[in-house]
Amino acid sequence: MAEKWILGEVVNVKHWTESLYSVRISAPEVKFIAGQYTKISLNIDNEDIARPYSFVNSPNEDFLEFYSVSVPNGPLSTKLQQLKKGDYINVSPNNNGFLILNEVPIIDNIWMLATGTAIGPYLSILKTKDSWNNFKKAILVHAVRYNNELTYQKTISDLKDIYGDRFIYITYVSREDSENSLTGRIPEGISTGILEKKAGIEILPDNTHIMICGNPEMVQDTTIELKKIGLKKHRRNSPGHITTENYW
Ligand code: NAP
């Protein structure tokens, strides 16, 4: 069956670095739950090219936003990067994904672990006021290669202003020095206890849920470390502590 599309209009493209950018689109008919992804599509050389993208905006905002990295030779991501205000783009109204709070038990501490552009779905959740009824504290951990990939600082400082000590933001920069960030990678931060120390919060099975999103190898390696300290995958028919989504 042919995919049904809604035509959205580009309202803004923000270029964070040479490869990272965010596209804002007006498409009021598209409804979703914070944390979900949908498909977006462009016609490129007479072919419709569609890829999944997570919503970064809250469902309560009156625009859609997608955060992307231009992948060398990636047909869609390189074209999306060139979009301008007033251009049109297809957005699917059929949304998916397990990184949504109705899939997660109500809990004290929710950890949101991301590499690169996978911070997007967490920002959607955190910008949605009702989300904060589902947990006491949110610990957002963003791992990137370089300092200038620590994007969305204004959104993060706005969240800090609203939620104070309930919101903890930790960064990893792995390939250059960074004043306030951890070095290395998330899985080793779990095995050494450095991540818990930095957050000032213990990862205990009875008060923790962990969402992991991004680089598939990071998702896998992090899950292994969490299992070693007693956490298990969360499934609808068998509740646990870990929810994951691979970004490519
Ligand atoms: P990345 O390689 O995912 O690195 C981001 C952070 O994750 C870095 O700090 C990196 O540490 C860390 N990391 C990498 N592998 C890990 C592992 N196994 N366990 C724990 N942490 C790990 O970099 P990126 O710039 O976000 O993405 C890289 C490339 O992936 C992009 O340039 C793009 O080509 C592609 N990509 C594709 C898509 C897609 O939808 N197709 C989406 C996003 C990215 P290290 O520096 O130590 O490696």
CATH topology (level 3) name of the largest domain:
Rossmann fold
Low-confidence stretches: none
The CATH architecture classification of the largest domain is 3-Layer(aba) Sandwich
> How much helix is in the residues?
10-25%
Pattern of helices and strands: EEEEEHEEHEHEHHEHE
Please report the distance between the alpha carbons of the first and last residues.
Answer: 25 Å
Describe this structure in words.
This protein is α/β, with parallel strands linked by helices and 248 residues long. It has six helices and eleven strands. The model has no long low-confidence stretch (mean pLDDT 97). NADP nicotinamide-adenine-dinucleotide phosphate binds next to strand 8, helix 4 and helix 6.
Label this structure with key terms:
single chain, 248 residues, alpha/beta, Elongation Factor Tu (Ef-tu), domain 3, Rossmann fold, 5-stranded parallel β-sheet, 6 helices, 20% helix, binds NADP nicotinamide-adenine-dinucleotide phosphate
Question: Quick summary of this structure?
Answer:
The chain is of the alpha/beta class and 248 residues long.
